Amino acid sequence: MLRQWRMGGAKSGKVFAVDNPSTLVEVAICPEFDEKDTEAAIKRAQEAFVSFRKTQPRVRARLLRRWYELMIENADDLARIITWENGKPLADSKTEVNYAAGFLASNPSCRIITQKEPVGVCGLIIPWNFPAAMITRKAGPALAAGCTVVVKAPAEAPLTALALAELADRAGFPKGVVNIIAALENTVAVGKVLTTHPIVKKVSFTGSTRVGKLLMNQCSSTLKKVSFELGGNAPFIVFEDADLDIALRGLIASKFRISGQTCVCANRILVHRKVYDKFVSMVVDTVEKFEVGDGMAETTTHGPLIHGLAVAKVDDHVKDAVAKGARVVHGGKRLSLGTNFFGITVLADMKPGMKICSEETFGPVAAFFPFDNEQEAIDMANDSEVGLAGYFFSKDLSRCWRVAEALEVGMVGVNVGAISDPVAPFGGVKQSGFGREGSKYGIDEFVVTKMIMTGIE
């Protein structure tokens, strides 16, 4: 009977018996871990991850190789343990040990080839803020892979999708390859069909984290392949050694593009206290020259928000910040131009606990937070459930690499404020989603890998 294990016991002291399924004889006693034990293990894993992620690949390779060697050296014992608790014949257990060890240091005896195949019909759910680019960024790689697409056009801006479909038809795509669904009242129903229909093999969605979670739950009913580009709360860090003119240009590009209505807009602007006042003043001097108005007017630099709910959210974020001690340096109010207009706004003296810290504003509000050292800036930047984009500005090359690796985001802009590019892999981590769009990685989202093995004996 196996009773001695080199492992910590459960905090509760509880154990359970492991029986041989063949003889029904008890072969071991195992600790009965509970939720608290599991949480403790997760904490230990996170603590170890901080340093293990930085170990050299050759160090990890040596560890894996030694683990492999020890498995082979102890193959007979491992095989007996497997048979005792699993019941499979000892010969099968020995085969499994060798198979398991192969994942650590493989030595295949067969020739294996792989081929990429289109995943099938893809449901593409598009946001309103880039009604053309979000279609081509998803449909382009899907069609290149050989998939067909059903595009759910945004209710707020469906006309661009219809125009692109017309152009796809003129380009010669066969009927049924590119399909557009437009809906307003039936948006939820259409989304449910795309996420639950068994013929749809892949869903790609760009939108809020809240909606993404709902769609992911629906996709689970048929285990679809999914890629979600969800909400962000991008930190924008200006260190004391930054070129402030470059940082200013980067901030304007990042923060105020289409009036702040992009998922990679700077949401929290963190500025070192030594240059804080100067940089805020430079930003105010710049935004004072902006012209808010009708997008068709030649003098307009910034247009309206998409609808009244968007304006209400921006207004709420500003009022919340002011109520908790922030200073309105510029703007801060709705404009009389129309119900969907909000003034370009600059807020200073921001603090943790304000809504902007944890929610994506999606509007023309530049919120400034002071910090005193590099680690404080990193901690502030990473204090978010989402992690799409992050930006920072510094002349120190060592700091650039250090901070870029420390930021918990999928994309980092170093001394640059515009990071979207067709050849760049676009996507986030944490609750900003998963999967990548653009670059060579984007097409992988629309293919499945088939393995073909042939014997060589």
UniProtKB/TrEMBL annotation:
<keyword id="KW-0560">Oxidoreductase</keyword>
<protein>
    <recommendedName>
        <fullName>Succinate-semialdehyde dehydrogenase, mitochondrial</fullName>
        <ecNumber>1.2.1.16</ecNumber>
        <ecNumber>1.2.1.24</ecNumber>
    </recommendedName>
</protein>
<dbReference type="GO" id="GO:0009450">
    <property type="term" value="P:gamma-aminobutyric acid catabolic process"/>
</dbReference>
<dbReference type="GO" id="GO:0004030">
    <property type="term" value="F:aldehyde dehydrogenase [NAD(P)+] activity"/>
</dbReference>
<comment type="pathway">
    <text>Amino-acid degradation; 4-aminobutanoate degradation.</text>
</comment>
<dbReference type="InterPro" id="IPR029510">
    <property type="entry name" value="Ald_DH_CS_GLU"/>
</dbReference>
<dbReference type="InterPro" id="IPR050740">
    <property type="entry name" value="Aldehyde_DH_Superfamily"/>
</dbReference>
<dbReference type="InterPro" id="IPR015590">
    <property type="entry name" value="Aldehyde_DH_dom"/>
</dbReference>
<dbReference type="InterPro" id="IPR016162">
    <property type="entry name" value="Ald_DH_N"/>
</dbReference>
<dbReference type="InterPro" id="IPR016160">
    <property type="entry name" value="Ald_DH_CS_CYS"/>
</dbReference>
<comment type="similarity">
    <text>Belongs to the aldehyde dehydrogenase family.</text>
</comment>
<dbReference type="InterPro" id="IPR016161">
    <property type="entry name" value="Ald_DH/histidinol_DH"/>
</dbReference>
<dbReference type="GO" id="GO:0046394">
    <property type="term" value="P:carboxylic acid biosynthetic process"/>
</dbReference>
<dbReference type="InterPro" id="IPR016163">
    <property type="entry name" value="Ald_DH_C"/>
</dbReference>
<dbReference type="Pfam" id="PF00171">
    <property type="entry name" value="Aldedh"/>
</dbReference>
<feature type="active site">
    <location>
        <position position="229"/>
    </location>
</feature>
<dbReference type="GO" id="GO:0005737">
    <property type="term" value="C:cytoplasm"/>
</dbReference>
<feature type="domain" description="Aldehyde dehydrogenase">
    <location>
        <begin position="12"/>
        <end position="452"/>
    </location>
</feature>
<dbReference type="GO" id="GO:0004777">
    <property type="term" value="F:succinate-semialdehyde dehydrogenase (NAD+) activity"/>
</dbReference>
